[in-house]
Amino acid sequence: MEESIAELRETFRTGTTKSVSWRKKQLRALLDLVNENEDSIFQALDQDLGKSRVESYRDEIGIIKKSASYSLSCLDKWMAPKKGELPLLFFPAKAEVMPEPLGVVLIFSSWNFPITVALDPLIGAISAGNTVLLKPSELAPACMSFLTQTIPRYLDNKAIKVIGGGADVGSPRVGRLVLTAAAKYLTPVTLELGGKCPAIVDNTLSNPSKAKVTAKRIVGGKWGPCTGQACIAIDYVLVEEKLASTLIETVKKYIKIFYGDNLKELKSISRIVNQLQFQRLVNLLKDPHVAASVVYGGSVDEEKLVIEPTILLDPPLDSEIMNEEIFGPLLPIITLKNIEESIEFINSKPNPLVIYAFTENETFKKRILSETSSGSVTFNDSMVQFLCDSLPFGGVGQSGFGRYHGKYSFDTFSHEKSVLHRAFYPELEPRYPPWTNFKLAFLKLAYALDYFGLILLMSGFRKS
Amino acid sequence: MILSQKHPDSHALNTPQKLTLPHRHYRRRRSYRPKKSQNNVNHVMASEEEKKSVFDVESAKEVVKELRASFAAGKTKSYEWRSTQLNAMLKMMEENEPQIVAALRDDLSKPELESSIYEVAMVKSSCRVALKKLKHWIMPEKAKTSLITFPSSAEIVSEPLGVVLVISAWNYPFLLSLDPVIGAIAAGNAVVLKPSEIAPATSLLLARLAADYLDRSCIKVVEGAVPETSALLEQKWDKILYTGNGRVARIVMAAAAKHLTPVVLELGGKCPVIVDSDINLQVATRRIIAGKWGCNNGQACISPDYIITTKSYAQKLVDSFKCELERFYGKNPFESKDLSRIVNSNHFARLSKLLDEDKVSGKIVHGGERDEANLRIAPTILLDVPQDSLIMTEEIFGPLLPIIQVDKLEDSFDVINSSGTKPLAAYLFTNNKKLKEKFVATVSAGGLVVNDTTVHLAEHTLPFGGVGDSGMGAYHGKFSFDTFSHKKAVLYRGFACDAFVRYPPYSRGKLRLLEALFNGSFFSIIRALLGWFKS
Q1: Do the Cβ atoms of A374 and B488 come within 8 Å?
Q2: Could you tell me the domains of chain B?
Q3: TM spans, by residue (chain B) (predicted)?
Q4: What is the pLDDT of residues B179-190, one digit of tens each?
Q5: Which of B109, B116, B23 has its CA nearest to residue B333?
Q6: Which residues in chain A (129-158) have CB-CB distances under 8 A to chain B?
Q7: Cα(B28)–Cα(B202) distance, rounded to whole angstroms?
Q8: Across the strands, what pairs with B371?
Q9: Chain A, 12-31: which have a CB under 8 Å from a chain B CB?
Q10: pTM of the predicted protein model
């Protein structure tokens, strides 16, 4: 590995990765990689996680294609220096902020979206002109193998390397380890973690057509992406007591339509990644009080690593399922007397990556925005914020720090260097010692940008 | 000690088991006595002469608890609170300038003009910028949405991070304490400020003034040295901004890592100055002097550290320096009131060691005089010190200026890049357009200035921060506000136009339509829809 890193440093030093043509060439090559190997990617995702083609396209291939194309189309603009405004005092001078690559960067990706979470940051790192070492997760071995073998065939080997292996990344525990290691070298870090992402549902449920859409989006947003094994999957739902049964019935209906009536007939849904995660999820249901709160589903197939979509109603708040990030197909529904209590409920837990809120009440929306803290907030939908290139994707507090997607990826992997160009004339004598009261007065006025005061001072109408 | 023998993280970090911060042995002096006597109960002191209470981990926990409660109560979030605090800070600086200047003179023998301008005026200017722009900064930013999420609208909302810690440095103790605090307040956070114990008079004054002028339930100053800093670092903060050196920065970041706390590190490095020959030499020399000895006598993170020029020009440059130095500081610089002293005996010894190294001591071409009793070293220029000497490998942070000679000026870029570390700033004096372009393109540093030194610090529209070993993150102006904010993405969707293509059961038709949607072209969407209707 040291050799690989040394080679990456050397390549960066030669300046190859800085040119816009190199960056565009790599991005186009990445597009070719995805276009020409769609079937292999579908197969690998099916093998690792049981993802269907539509899910794989929607959550992985499509995202990468969109991201690479978007970066290609914006790259010239992103690379251009940003002009800074300068006060008259500096005249004549020019200020700009120039993005430059950081150098050699490391990307750890996770197993649940093994293509997206590997290649999307890679797109950002390449766009910003860095050399990259990519470590895909070994917990998605087919995808890891695909990336390890295919990337060298398409991308510049001297600048982009893939190394297999890597622990389960994405949790706060591993985040701490990474950050501690980075501290030794003063390496800046972006941590994309997770958390318990809540979905608040208010009385829009009273409207049947909105209730339908809400239920579809909750079901689609919970079990659609990797059967709930997603950092932005809905972890639990908050609803008023009196609307709970409406919600549960509608959600059940759509579970059956989307995924089938029971465990044996399950379709269009991924599986649990491995035995360890499977056991972890099964154990969440072992607590008798938790098991007693299951109102739908709960069946498991250990051999196929499948757990059917499961709904729980008011499991105990001190149970593990309500304190650990679930990261699986179990959906607790917590009832409240009044939906406004959801704010306090959410604030009693660490900041999540995203808060979902199904409501049309503008006051409530404002309260949610100002009184809770999360990476992002999405109103009346789930998951789709991930598709917006203009929105920063990242966490806060325990859900992480730093952000990417779109230009934020480019910025995250860049150093914004400020550049000030000055001329030799005019010269401001008061800058230099020996100090006098006049010079002090002059500089005070200058710093306050009090041009009129300066004129008065210099023309003798103002005492120093 | 943060990294004592027993500290659990010390082995993990592979750092020296015993940490000594470089400024530990500061000279004992009479404590600064504030003009008004105050019964201060809201700041905690741990000076050697007056140990009223020990600030330990429990105390730190209490402080954070109180601030978290204030933050949770929403005290710091309103525009009114933020602007009241910023106005109070402005008033604080306006009404106490003489005391501030006196404290800086006590701690650093800082000339009045440097104190008034680089500390007081800059803090005031920073307050004014924040006050003027705050409403605009607080407003959410609209974000575009695309066809994929149609219909929708999006925005990015700035929210405070919560409770933040600012650890400041001794060389610009007011500026480097209050400038970050201004950003933290503007962004709506509760703040703890830990000023440097190496500048005890200013630390005490800051604590007193903050308690008198600012909201004590949300903004606190904790004085002290390593034990107090360690106690603070054990707590969970929502962000830490540290100004200082790389060694302590690693400790701060490792402590922050335990709580997943993001950090901004404002460090330093060896800031090079490349000097071309076809320039206005007098102006260039003066600007280098202003940035070097005019900034706390070289004890500034962005002071020119060393110069690179051509062999043919070096002597001219040295002569110009001699001339201008005398013009500014007189024949005997020890008599000039316009130079700060070296902060303490520890640093004095460190700088003396740089000069006394065998391969360096014979290279002094100007200055070199020392007065240990008064902690003074004359402006000193050295010519052609070896690249592997201490003075060329460590950040100087003092009034010594080595000049390195190269055959042609283009070689200077290799000299800078071969050091393996990126400085906080780099400077170039030239009229050659190509050289300017190459400089900007190849030299990586926090910030660059062409034909001047250090002035970029005063420009609030430029982000001020380092890269690599010179630090991470940036602040000043809106960058301060952004650094202490979480930029929350918000997507608004409606219930209408629910895209069936998202939901199972999945089919080939849905796959094609999804592909078309991602593609973003209307034509392919229509084609997919037609194909859908056909099947």
Answers
A1: yes
A2: 18-267+480-485 (3.40.605.10), 272-465 (3.40.309.10), 499-534 (no CATH)
A3: none
A4: 999 999 999 999
A5: B109
A6: none
A7: 15
A8: B376
A9: 13, 15, 18
A10: 0.90
